[in-house]
Design brief:
heterodimer; A: alpha+beta; 2 domains; 4-stranded antiparallel sheet; 3-stranded mixed sheet; B: mainly beta; 6-stranded antiparallel sheet; 5-stranded mixed sheet; 0% helix; globular
């Protein structure tokens, strides 16, 4: 067959559209369409040279599907067979440049943004080639059809497990998982709920029982990102006021930061270095009580408090 | 892309040029084609792609390891996160000490974890 040497203007214009179509598939919160999914599965099995499954199981969350998969583990998994025999080999039929163009716009951009249907990026990538006339890529169409109607799935000999997509998926304006008043991801049966604050996973109670999250708890969280998230949920100003924070020293460079002393209920005075990260987020780092300046505290975090003259990094990102 | 002569920091990882390596080092193997200069428990590692001109060494210290870049090309220090990403830093050829950030605890200190 003829090799695809170059994309036409019309094909190039289709790439962002194909990307958006597959983003919508990957981020869909529609319930599983059982009949449409069944029909796609039958086509996939046929393409892989397998008998159609006798049993179609539907589960509403990954945990339910995983438990069921463990309990039902009688048949052989045929995933590899499906992958190998249905899988498309379009490399030989496409020029490098074309490959890169489609890969950048569809595979990478969809892959970076979908949380539910993790196959959406590569299926979208191949669907573009199918549309541009690469017949081998068209063999993946039943897999694409299934992705449009179903969440994760697992093929076995004689049976298939189909799983619903999340019923809730929420993001902030930078496409990070985020929801201030509920789960950022929820599956229809409620067995899986993920709470997230601007991309950082957090415990459920920080969202559902905000009053339980105090400044003292927030500052004692071990994970730096979760500590920052907790401080943002309460509000930095509220924390500093709640804990009667006092500025000990402030460096002119916000990346070196401000050394503060807070009064933690039941444990007394502690010092923190509040810094603005290069990613424009504010972090609080606990430092020893004998720190006198922000620069000294900053150097201490890298064991360089005795070599202040050598300390300052030229660039911070 | 940013670069530096003596000292730079990317998130909680600091890199400083030094004269020579200490003795008794062991080589840190690459994982899946990457040298993980700073491991993150949520998978947002700071990495350099594996190639023969770049080697990482440890001596069992939680906070310090070493990096050697030979040849003419800089090694690129990348942060593996799709959001709030720390900008890539070009590490010129040379010998470096890598330092992780620590935090105060009532018992002493712990390595900062993200």
């Amino acid at each position: 067959m003829k090799k695809l040497e170059k994309l036409t203007d019309a094909q190039l214009a289709r790439l962002p559209q194909i990307r958006d179509e597959w983003l919508a598939i990957g981020l869909s919160t529609e319930p599983l369409n059982f009949e449409a999914a069944k029909s796609a599965v039958v086509k996939i099995y046929a393409a892989a040279g397998l008998e159609p499954p006798k049993w179609f199981f539907r589960f509403q969350s990954p945990i339910a599907a995983a438990i069921a998969a463990a309990m039902l583990k009688t048949g052989d998994q045929v995933r590899d067979q499906v992958r190998d025999q249905v899988g498309a080999q379009v490399w030989d039929q496409v020029r490098d440049q074309v490959w890169d163009q489609v890969r950048d716009q569809v595979w990478d951009q969809v892959g970076a943004q979908v949380y539910g249907a993790h196959d959406a990026n590569w299926l979208g990538f191949y669907s573009a080639f199918a549309e541009f006339g690469i017949t081998d890529a068209a063999r993946l169409e039943p897999l694409g059809e299934l992705a449009k109607h179903c969440g994760w799935w697992a093929p076995y000999e004689g049976m298939v497990i189909l799983q619903d997509r999340p019923s809730v998926l929420r993001f902030d304006d930078q496409k990070r998982l985020h929801c201030e008043d509920g789960p950022a991801i929820r599956y229809p049966d409620g067995l899986v709920e993920v709470f997230a604050w601007h991309g950082t996973r957090i415990p459920r109670e920080w969202i559902e029982d905000k009053k339980s999250l105090t400044g003292k708890i927030a500052l004692s969280i071990e994970n730096v990102e979760q500590r920052r998230a907790a401080c943002e949920i309460i509000g930095w100003a509220n924390i500093l006021e709640q804990l009667k924070a006092k500025t000990i020293d402030k460096h002119e460079n916000p990346e070196i930061g401000e050394l503060i002393e807070v009064n933690l209920p039941d444990s007394g005075k502690e010092r923190f270095l509040c810094v603005m990260c290069a990613t424009k987020r504010r972090f609080a780092i606990p430092v020893p009580p004998n720190m006198k300046t922000a620069l000294q505290a900053s150097a201490w975090t890298y064991c360089m408090e005795d070599a202040l003259n050598d300390y300052l990094p030229e660039v911070r990102t | 892309m940013k670069t530096f002569k003596v000292c730079a920091a990317q998130g909680d990882l600091m890199i400083r040029r030094i004269e020579k390596l200490p003795d008794e080092l062991s080589i840190v193997p690459a994982e899946n084609g990457k040298l993980i200069l700073a491991h993150s428990e949520t998978g947002h590692n700071h990495i350099v792609l594996e190639r023969p001109e770049v080697s990482q060494y440890s001596f069992g210290d939680l906070l310090r390891s070493f990096l050697v870049v030979t040849g003419d090309e800089p090694a690129l220090l990348e942060h593996e996160r799709s959001f709030d990403t720390h900008e890539t830093i070009a590490i010129p050829p040379g010998i470096y000490e890598l330092r992780r950030q620590r935090e105060h605890t009532p018992e002493g200190w712990r390595r900062a974890a993200d």
